[in-house]
Amino acid sequence: MKEIVIVKEQSGQRLDKFLGKYLSQASMGFIYKMLRKKNIKLNDGKADGREKLVPGDRISLYFSEETLLTFHPTSAPDPDVSLALAKKPLQILYEDDNILVLNKQRGLLSQKAKPADISLNELVAAYVGNSYEGVQAGICNRLDRNTSGIVVAGKTIPALQKMNELFRSRELEKYYLAVVYGRFQEEGEKVSYLKKDRKNNQVQVFSEPLEGAERIQTGFQVLKTETWKGGPVTLLKVRLYTGKSHQIRGQCQAMGHPIVGDPKYAKKEPGVKGQMLHSYELRFPPMDGDFQMLSERVFQAPPPDDLIQLIDMKGVRL
After folding, report:
1. Which of 186, 182, 189, 190 shows the shortest CA–CA distance to 206?
2. Which pTM was predicted?
3. pLDDT at 78
4. What residues are annotated to the active site?
């Protein structure tokens, strides 16, 4: 028999979710069967898997050692992930016992698209390590592969849940820097409707409601306009009120000002390696309890060098 005593870092998740991670090689059907047969117990009693775990809960697994090793194999860190982390360490803007605030590099996936990928999610897990059974550190917001900037990662289950809640409720204020073609003159908040083309992984943005389109809200502030390659380009500070895939990229294109270097929504630009879009600033709301240290904190991620080289940011007030 194996007994697991739940600690704070493991609490807050459902029993079946915890068991799915701990018994990673077992099917959920097997896990539910073991719960029904009382081969898995919670606090010496029968459980159905929907129970929310709290510190001090005891999970008893009435398995043989051989069965336990089959469904809960011990493994060393993935050497490819460890090597990638050694070559390109995480750019950490802030860290405490609960979260990481990171500056994601352009070209790095937020989450893997296929099994062989090494994404920011794997790098975070390798950095934090699996100190507690059934806890997997991970990111709480995603940026497109070719968008750089702020990503928040949770190091514990309660932190992952709290950060995900803040992103969903839009209590976090998110600001981006974007360099767009043309002389941008439509400052202020913009409400539009975004429709996804999943086949081509693109979006279309419309000014009026449309069947299948989602409402989006974006704020624009002009910081500077200057000449580049014989034409005007504008540096914008963009506030993202809603967080839909390709929202800023699609909105800028629909307004006639696509982002410089955007491979999907703008022309190919010789000498530009990626889109000039950067998640620059994150502002936390008032918070208390375990997250009081984040209350009203503001984090900023330095823009990539090529964005700074494209448009002179001296004198620009961000």
Report:
1. 190
2. 0.81
3. 65
4. 144
